[in-house]
Target: 16S rRNA (Guanine966-N2)-methyltransferase
Amino acid sequence: MTRIISGVAGGRRLRTPPGSGTRPTSDRVREALFSRLEHQGLLDATAVLDLYAGSGALGLEAASRGATRVLLVEAAAKAAATARANVATVGLPGVRVVTDTVERTLRGGPHDGIRYDLVLLDPPYDVSEDDLAAVLALLVEHGWLGPDPVVVVERSTRTPQPTWPPGLELSGEKRYGETAVWFAEPPPDGGGA
Model:
């Protein structure tokens, strides 16, 4: 069972997509990640982009904790339908689901002119390091990032640190069992997006 950990929708149960194509973030990892983000003031009244959203659990957790705009992007139709059902169950305003590939969505630029303060990426295991690097570059190149963004990538501890594009650099790393979480931000010299 997956659930919203905290915030106004805390405790609400979320459906998970049928089949084995998605890998929901464990409650333990979500709790640690969002406690850190909340402590840094990265959730209240922010815009959040959740790429490879699956059930939408990460983006919905952000909405529950104060994010005002959340865009969930998921290519798999069944997973996107599950995310839509979870959005309806949680019932928080400002959450939208796009059913399309992450790459195609990012190449199109922000549809609503919103630049995102927080970007969450939890790609499937079969997304290669090169493909992930290309997605990170699209975030910068196509104007998705706000003036002081934080980008969070969740992967297996067996994968290397993501290749950050110009405009983003590693700002932290945490490991939770078999899960690694990397944080990136613009360089302090202002070389950001």
Remarks:
- The helical segments are 27-39, 57-64, 77-90, 102-107, 129-141.
- The chain is about 30% helix and 25% strand.
- The chain has a mean pLDDT of 92.
- The chain has one domain: 2-16+26-185.
